[in-house]
Every structure is written in C-alpha cells, then in structure tokens.
Amino acid sequence: MPTALVTGATGFIGGHLVKALSSCGWDVHATIRDNTPPAVTAHRLDGTQACLNDILATVRPDVVFHLASLFLADHRADQVEPLAAANIVFPMQLVEAMVQADCHKLVNTGTAWQFDSQGAVAPVNLYAATKQAFEAILPYYRDARGLSTISLRLFDTYGPSDPRRKLIRILLDAATIGERLDMSPGEQIVDLTHIDDVVSAFLGAGQRLLDSNEPLDEEFFVSGERQSVKALVEIVGEALRKPISVHFGGRPYRPREVMLPVEPGQRIMPGWQRRRSLVEALPAMVSL
Question: The NAD-dependent epimerase/dehydratase domain covers which part of the protein (predicted)?
Fold first, then answer.
C-alpha cells in the first residue's frame, strides 16, 4: 500500500483527491492548519520548518501531493507577504522536509496563468508569479537532492459541491433564481475541467512517479473544454432548460484579463484524457 501526503486537503480539489486516493488503496495523510480535518490521518501545521520535518519523518510518504496555495485574482499591498508565505515559503519548507526524510516524489500544482497564449512564461497576476517562483526553485532540489517532480498546470475547474464562487456556480445560481447578471463582453475563452478529470490527472501523476526508476522532471497541462464566456452562458442555459438573463458589457474586463489561455498542445500527461462532459455534468450540479 503506497503512502500519500496531501497538502491543501481541505480545499475543493484536495478534498476530492484524498477520497480518490483512499478508494484506490493509498494510505492517505494530510497537513492541516484549521480545525476541519479531512477524512484521513491529519497532521497539524504550526508554520515552522521543524514541524514539517517531524511530519515527513513520521509519515515518510511515497508521494507528496502539493495542492495548498493562496489564490488571489488581484492583490492588495498587505497581501504580498501572505502570498509569498503560502506559495513560496511553505512549499520550499515542504520539499526541504521531504529530502531530509528521504522522500523524493512530488506532484506539484501549478496554474495555466503562469503562461501567455503562446506558452511563454508571463504570469498574469502575483498569484501566478509566486507559483512560477516556487517552480524556479525545484531544479536545485532535483539536481542536488534527487527530487522527482511532476507539475500539473490547471485551468478552471468545476464540479458538484464546489463552495467556490466561480463562473459555473454563478451561472447555475442565476439560472435557478432568475437573477440578471452584469458581465463582461464575454469574448474571453475559458478552459473548464471537471473535478473527476482533475483528480484522475493527480492519480496518474502519482502512479507515474511510483513507476519510474529514474527521477522525473515533467510538466503537464490539465485541459478540459474550451469556449467563450458568451457560449458558456448559452450552454448552461440550454443544459438546464432555464435561459440566463445576462447583460454582456455591463461590467468591464478585469485588468490583465486572459482572453486566450495557453494551448496545451502535446503537453498532456500520457494516458490521461478528459472524460467528463460539461453538458452531462451540469444538471446534477444545479441543486447542489
């Protein structure tokens, strides 16, 4: 039975991942900061390197799945330090504790917002920049300490019981209560992946690390279905048979709006493919 340590296990994606790992026979452990432990063996963090060292030395996971982060679409000056602490300092402490405990397999979580539409590194916001900054540190641990890594770059994600106020949830709620929405002109393209497919990618990455006899240095996109926001509004309305009242242009685009996400091209993990359809998934989400 392989052992997993998951950071960010109380989040939407992390919560689904720990359930899937347990179902697949993994012995699952999680790091937590609050009083809401996941349904796995939980280890409380206190923010120190010594605490992480103790956790890794105790658990000795075969694979660490790092999903914990602080996401801010835009930031204030007083949020710079929390962003750096969550997205750079903590994962640095994590990999240091890993190599100290002779644990060398890491699935890291990145974002498509680290890149422009042509695939060049060009972080959209400070959140994406901190993600990129941490990944710039990983080559040292790979070369000097034998760390084996797979970074999964996520686009937008959705699924049932999602507490986040993301676009799909906003549209579902508007369709249900008949709310009129002021939205941007809606020409931007969004890439949406169902949570089941996202979890499948993490499981595949973990198994890929377990199966490899050599250290890996791999990066893959987890890409779903693409359409404009305008088209998405129509898709949601048609799937639920409840047209959504939208005033396109009622709000401006956000600063540095991503109009065209990076194209994954061939940078998709071997053996993984999208299986869940947005149209099929939407009806089951409307009452959740």
Answer: 4-208
